[in-house]
Amino acid sequence: MNPIHFAFSSAFLLGLMGLAFNRTHLLSALLCLEAMMLSLFIALSIWTLQLNSTNFSASPMLMLAFSACEASAGLALLVATSRTHGNDRLQNLNLLQC
């Protein structure tokens, strides 16, 4: 395995482990999701550079745009939950209640 591939796969796995094991605050979950998306973006960018093909050149920008949309939706949910519940702890949220 190439050291570059190892670095990006370990960055993605660290973000996934942070999301799985550290689920106390919504903000920390959103930061772990953003770290995972950033490592995927960089890996996809390097993959398109290694292929030397223009067919896949729009893929990293499209993924970055979807990542920005996901981040804005997550921050909107963070603001809404902190206004209604007073904090961003995931244990205080009851998802079954209207």
TrEMBL record:
Enzyme Commission designation: 7.1.1.2
Intracellular or extracellular location(s): Mitochondrion inner membrane; Mitochondrion membrane
Membrane topology, as annotated: Multi-pass membrane protein
Primary localisation category: mitochondrion
Entry-linked InterPro entries: NADH_UbQ_OxRdtase_chain4L/K, NUOK/Mnh_C1-like
GO MF entries: NADH dehydrogenase (ubiquinone) activity; oxidoreductase activity, acting on NAD(P)H
GO biological process: ATP synthesis coupled electron transport
Catalytic activity: a ubiquinone + NADH + 5 H(+)(in) = a ubiquinol + NAD(+) + 4 H(+)(out)
Keyword Ligase tagged: no
Keywords: Electron transport, Membrane, Mitochondrion, Mitochondrion inner membrane, NAD, Respiratory chain, Translocase, Transmembrane, Transmembrane helix, Transport, Ubiquinone
Bilayer-crossing regions: 6-22, 29-49, 61-80
A GO CC annotation given for this chain: NADH dehydrogenase complex
Family indicated by similarity: Belongs to the complex I subunit 4L family.
PANTHER family registered for this protein in UniProt: NADH-UBIQUINONE OXIDOREDUCTASE CHAIN 4L, NADH-UBIQUINONE OXIDOREDUCTASE SUBUNIT ND4L
Cited function: Core subunit of the mitochondrial membrane respiratory chain NADH dehydrogenase (Complex I) which catalyzes electron transfer from NADH through the respiratory chain, using ubiquinone as an electron acceptor. Part of the enzyme membrane arm which is embedded in the lipid bilayer and involved in proton translocation.
Protein name: NADH-ubiquinone oxidoreductase chain 4L
Protein's organism: Pampus argenteus
